[in-house]
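**Polypeptide and fold**
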Amino acid sequence: MSAVDISHILDFLPCATPRAWVDWALQHPQLLLIDHANCEKKAASTALNLMYRYTDQPVLLNKLSRLAREELRHFEQVIALMGKRGVAYPQLSAARYAGALREQVRRNEPGRLVDTLLVGAIIEARSCERFAAIAPELDQELGQFYRSLLKSESRHFMDYLKLARSVSAGAEVDERLPVLLAVEQGLIESPDTEFRFHSGVPAAA
């Protein structure tokens, strides 16, 4: 499989995934898969929710319909891998990551839509960066699967970012992104007590 260039994502994100998270993920391979499945399911749900809320946005509806289908295909691939490996699918508490980012979303339109799309872009970018960071350290099957996701995650990032620019006014995106990315960096670099796909670094015992 040829390498996927994600340099634009590395340039976009405010920080790289800390090595401590990669080590933590390698210690919890089953949780990694379980929460990855949850992330794909939530990503599809987010796209569908936006489609229900913004029915007057034909470009958004078209892009997010395709994105939701792709996220659900990824979900099916993850649960197939879990089944093959004998990994059960219990309920997990959500990471603080997405919720904390969404707390920054403005309440009034059109700012609400712009911020929601920017949060979507940030989450997709971080997911792509994490797949690339951990893939070389996993077994061949799982590492290859994660590398296969890089192209689609990169495209989802660009779709959300382009949609945000298309519905925003003036320099709104350029003004909001630094605010949201600063929050994202804090979440990635600060301690977490439970491992999740988007958790920070492990808290000291």
Q: What stands out?
A: Residues 58-84 form the longest helix (27 residues). The chain is about 70% helix and 0% strand. The mean pLDDT is 95.
